[in-house]
Amino acid sequence: MGSTSGIDRRSLIKRSAAIGLISVPTMSFLSACASGDSADNKVEKGEKSTDNPLGVNASAPLDFVLFDGGFGVEYAEDAVKVYEKTYPKAKVKFGSTQKIQSELQPRFNGGTPPDLIDNSGAEQMDMGVLVGKDQLTDLTPLLDAPSIDDPSKKVRDILRPGIIEMGQYDGDACYILNYAYTVYGVWYSQTALDKLDAEYPEDWDAMLALCAKAKKKGIAGWTYAGKYPYYIPFSLYPFIGKIGGREVLDAIDNLEPNAWKHPAVKAGFEAYYELFKKGYVLKGTPGIDHVESQTAWTQGKALFLPNGSWVENEAAGTTPDDFEMKVAAPSSLDSSDKLPFGTLWASGGEPFIVPKKAKNPDGGMEQLRIMLSENSSKNFTGKVKSLTALDGGTDGLELTSALKSAVAALEKAGENILNPRLQDWYVELQKQKIGVGAIGEMMAGRMTPAEAMKKCQEFADAAAKDDSIKHYRHK
Predict the structure, then answer these.
(1) Is 281 within the bounds of a domain?
(2) 386 near 392, Cβ under 8 Å?
(3) Would you report the helix, strand and coil content of the chain in percent, each value rounded to 5?
(4) Strands 302-307 and 185-189
(5) Are residues 208 and 247 in the same domain?
(6) Which family does it belong to (predicted)?
(7) Quick one: pLDDT at residue 40?
(8) Contact assessment for residue 453 and residue 269, using Cβ atoms and an 8 Å cutoff
């Protein structure tokens, strides 16, 4: 599925330092892996049984670190309480942080990582590198374990489509369990559109017309996380895929030569650049972060925001009661698009990993099995207003307008759901280079679409030629 050529020590150290797996000067990543095999430090396995299919050591400590982001920490704390009730002799150390890489990098280097990590946020560790350097536990035992609610079904049988595939990087092994199921797209307030006597625009001409109408009322058409412009692809990538077909996005993921020069990319970039050129982007957007952009949006300063379904919970503090938050798939460019209106990006999010050198990997997987129960899933959805990887799990819940629209968007998309892999195969390339260094520059007016396309291709070509990077391809 992917390939790497020979990796010399200098290239490995250079690459690992670049994505934060080591801090210079310090022990190299290879040395850290070689020193003190963690197999000697692992807790003894417990006895497998119907109630303990993973063979968890009932008295072994569990170390769990969660990313404290848009979903908060309460859902995980609740799931930890279930673990503690199930294994009352086990001491669970639970912590949360927004600085995943900064705080956990030294622990990976020292061979003492936590047993379970929610590897998310701006300081997300590069999953492609972690997999490529054999630092993660294969979660197949979890997938093959009986589910908590229906032991006749394995965990793999109760997951939403695409969840397992997202955790696979090379072959059938699954290294990541994305707990949330995220609907990416264009977020808006139905109330704001009603005030303009408007419907969500289903093609780009209608989008531009609505933005022009809003501008006359002193309202911007769009805003986004200017300091983190890799949020823009949440709507731009499916827009491009809709225009040219999913094979365009696959070629980009595969780091293929000239992938960024495809006519669909050109059309997508030029359409979004037109938002800037015509003054339809909220003034000052390039200088604001995700929270500030969301706040400006909930305050009615802009109509549309590219984001994921965590936004409802993250922006809850500033969202008016009558906002009626909704999400929609990207507008069509025109009738020549390869895929129909409704095509959108939806996939697993909030990636959980069990490090290979974890002392209690069985406990880490058991905590995930608990989180995939219907009770824990409903608790998550009810508290953070987002779907989980569990297929279903919303029966009996009163859904908000945002969550209802997300479910409706998935139903409308049907088979036309796209899942670009660039953001989890090549984190640094997607976020800092393509996101910040090209798309962000274009949307700020500092690059033309042609220049941004060229820069994206240069970044992708460099990654493709970098033999210190593990390369992946769509099957």
Answers:
(1) yes
(2) no
(3) 45, 15, 40
(4) antiparallel
(5) yes
(6) Belongs to the bacterial solute-binding protein 1 family.
(7) 63
(8) yes
Q: How many angstroms separate the CA atoms of 444 and 199, rounded?
A: 27
Whether 21 is covered by a domain: the verdict is: no
- Domain co-membership, 356 together with 431: no
3-state secondary structure of 92: strand
- Which H helix or E strand runs over 94? strand 92-97
- The string of DSSP codes covering 318-356 is G--TT--EEEEPPPBS-TT-SS-TT-EEEEEEEEEE-BT
Place of tokens 């997938």: 143
Name 238's Cβ contacts closer than 8 Å, sequence gap at least 6.
184, 185, 329, 330, 343, 344, 345, 418, 420
Q: Which residues have a Cβ under 8 Å from the Cβ of 392 and sit 6 or more positions away?
A: 374
* pLDDT on residue 171: 82
If asked whether residues 332 and 368 sit together in one domain, one would say no
Q: What is the CA radius of gyration of the chain?
A: 22
Q: 344 is written with which tokens? A: 């959108």
User: Closest by alpha carbon to 90, among 137, 43, 53, 141?
Assistant: 43
pLDDT, position 315: 94
Peptide bond into 141 cis (omega under 30): no
Q: How many residues would you count in the chain?
A: 475
Q: Which domain holds residue 319?
A: 182-344+416-463
In this prediction, residue 32 carries a pLDDT of 38
Do the Cβ atoms of 30 and 24 come closer than 8 Å? no
Q: Integer distance in angstroms from the first to the last C-alpha of the chain?
A: 6
pTM for the whole structure: 0.79
User: Measured between alpha carbons, how far is 316 from 312 in angstroms, rounded to an integer?
Assistant: 6
**How many angstroms from the chain centroid is the CA of residue 294?**
18
Those residues of the chain that have pLDDT short of 70 are 1-40
Sign of CA dihedral 142, 148, 149, 152: positive
pLDDT tens for residues 269-303? 999 999 999 999 999 999 999 999 999 999 999 99
pLDDT for 144 equals: 98
In terms of C-beta distances under 8 Å and separation of at least 24 residues, what long-range contacts does 73-81 make, across chains too? 74/383, 75/376, 75/379, 75/380, 75/383, 75/384, 76/118, 76/371, 78/376, 78/379, 79/367, 79/370, 79/371, 79/376, 79/379, 80/367
Do both 274 and 420 map to the same domain?
Answer: yes
Q: Is residue 48 part of a domain?
A: no
Domain count, the chain: 2
